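Example record

The entry below shows one chain as it appears in the dataset: sequence first, then structure tokens.
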Amino acid sequence: TWGSKQILLTESLVTDIFNATCTHAKRMLRFTDKSIEEIGLECGIGELNYFSRVFKKLEGVSPSEFRRVW
């Protein structure tokens, strides 16, 4: 039905947006000294805990772990 297709489309769009956001965040984590909170704000996710949770869900590591590795 159209309703289920619309939900899938919306979920796909949200996933694409978060993936793009994480790509931008990863660049900033690697190449800047900005705090994780500043990076979250610049990526449009103002709540630090939410940003960290979304990042970890998509990347498998927290933003601070990602920064330490790179």
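Notes for this example: The chain has a mean pLDDT of 88. The CA atoms of residues 32 and 39 lie 9 Å apart.
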